[in-house]
Amino acid sequence: MSNTVRFYFSFRSPYSWLAFYRISKIMDDLPIEFEFIPVYPPKEFENDPKKNIRKTVYIGEDIKRFADAYGLELSWPKPFDIDWAIPHAAYIYAEEKGKGLEFILESYICRFSSGLDIATTEVLKSIASSCDLNDIELIDASQSPKYREQLEKRMAQGNKDKIFGAPFFIYQGQKYWGNDRLEWLLRDIMVNTKQAVPDLKSDLFLRPY
Known about the structure:
Layout (H helix, E strand, L loop, with lengths): L3 E6 L4 H13 L6 E6 L14 H18 L14 H12 L3 H14 L7 H10 L4 H9 L1 H16 L7 E4 L2 E4 L4 H11 L17
């Protein structure tokens, strides 16, 4: 099997933000490669937390708990939902230019730390500047049929992999959903690269890796 992790992320998801931030700190030290695949939910998203006020309130409290612990500023964007094709197609352009990781990180900072609408021309220009990208090309790419088509192909890969949310990781045929499953992903990476892992049977409160 491939020694690559497919990391499905979404700019809509605050948990994707947290997971990407963590992964960005350690990915260079891991003995595997990451494939970053942008996805966003369809208009009629069956598992949309916004349809359940109790779940929405809980997620807000949960994200703040993580953000505070990670030392991240949190500012909820308004509006929360935007034209999701724009930033996700723009990411594919940034990836093509070798600036994919920088684009993801800067977009998450703008969205969840500054509360900005990352689908607007003004914010995209700011992101382009921070990532040393051509702002005109980036904005054009966000609307371009070429990059929209590539985005659809990535989304189709997600359907093929039967993902149902983000962040979602696939490694060696195994699936991991959520920021709180990163520890289990790391455990399996260590197992597959012949590294010792904690014996959880002896202590159920050890970290998995």
